[in-house]
Amino acid sequence: MSGNDVAVHQPSLTGNTMTGSLDHKDKYPYCSPSYDPTALDGFLIEKWMNNDFCFTETDCDVYEIEGGKASWRNNRNDAQMREYLQSYRESLRPGTFRAIFCALSYEKKDHNTVARLKLSQSTAQELLKTFNVCPEFVETIRDSEPGNATPGNRTSYLKGGKLETIEFFCVHQSIVVFKPVHVYMRYEPAGSGTTYLIFHSSKSKNIRAIKRNLSQLWEIPARNALGGLGYPDLFMPHCMIFHELIQSQRDFLLGCQDRLNAVLDDIEEHIGGTSQREKLKEFTIELNQIAQDLDVHTYSLDQTLKNMKTLSKSHQLLETASSSSGRGGSPFSLAESMERLRMLLELDESNLSYLKSRRETAMSLVFNLVNQHDSQVNATIATESASIAREARSDSSSMKTIAALTMVFLPGTYIAAIFGMNLFNYSAGTIHVSAHWWLYVAITIPMTILTIVGEKGQNAVQKMNRP
């Protein structure tokens, strides 16, 4: 800063067991000029940065433009990154553009999701301090839920209202859960130094395209010198990342559309053919899956629109600073590029609404087909039940006939059995009763009583055991 610059006021940091080790003013995030204790809890960031699990072996890619010449430094290890940061602090080269790519992953630990950077703890601390990274950006990484992150920008001014720095950061949501792209930009108009930090999933398929497009941005001669007659808009890398991720979202949306069309074609064939309930079950599962995917896309689209709105606000500040400093303009208009991206997003919103409507219509059709199938099954069951009732009635008539015949013949059968026993003797022309007839009575009556009591007891036990 020059003598006319206003020093950034740092809050008084004193030791406190409730807020962490705030005595270390040289530690991040407390040393950052952008640290605002009213906006976030620095202790949470400090705690995350002190967690060994959140950091791994350093592996970064650095893209830098100096004096109109671009160069890539890939797979920088811990020592190489420290050397690069030391070189930056010693030279503070004006007119330099740099983009640092670092992979991150979200992993489970103790039932929690934790962000892990491919940076060592010490190098991460040095990186954030060297470029005065806004702690609110680090908070978007620390938060275990990328969806909770909101875009933001911070600006600082010198005396007289002259712009000193612009910071912009956002999280570009991916269709795939836990594969977001965290982007931070810091621009200082006085020195024209621009720094991009891009933290991305190691499994992201968009980063390769983003790196390729970033290189091509300065390959055109008319755009190859920052601060020259024509320079690329310093927000253009953000716009490129927007475009790449929006294209991925559009491809995903087209995939949902193809899946929905396939289901609708199958439903049409199903209506014309035989009705199979298992097939209807498959339709229902697929339509529910499409609904979930469309909801994810809706969320991602909303987040992209928020990022775009915040980016436009920050870009207006850059345009104002460029105009007031008399600096050359960009050979192309970022506003036009952003307008095109905005139109693509609006088109996606329209397509998304259309697909949701078609999905609901298809779901209603499947629901009606299921009801129709169930009605047919119920009608068949009713017909068979009526047939069973008729047969049961016929069986009932037969049983009544058997019961009637039994009632007619049972008394005679009983009498015949009694007189057929050896208790009676008819040989002398008269009836002689045996002297042992009482044995029949003595055995029959107790056996009858035992049978009745046993049947009653069995019925009582069955009633007690019923649920």
UniProtKB/TrEMBL annotation:
SUPFAM superfamilies from the UniProt entry: Magnesium transport protein CorA, transmembrane region (SSF144083)
Membrane topology summary: Multi-pass membrane protein
Protein name: Uncharacterized protein
Superkingdom of the organism of origin: Eukaryota
GO cellular component, one term: membrane
Organism of provenance: Heterodermia speciosa
Cellular compartment(s): Membrane
Polar residues: compositionally biased ranges: 11-20
Positions of transmembrane segments: 402-424, 436-454
InterPro entries found in the cross-reference section: CorA_MIT (IPR050829), CorA_TM1_TM2 (IPR045863)
Stretches for region Disordered: 1-20
Entry keyword set: Membrane, Transmembrane, Transmembrane helix
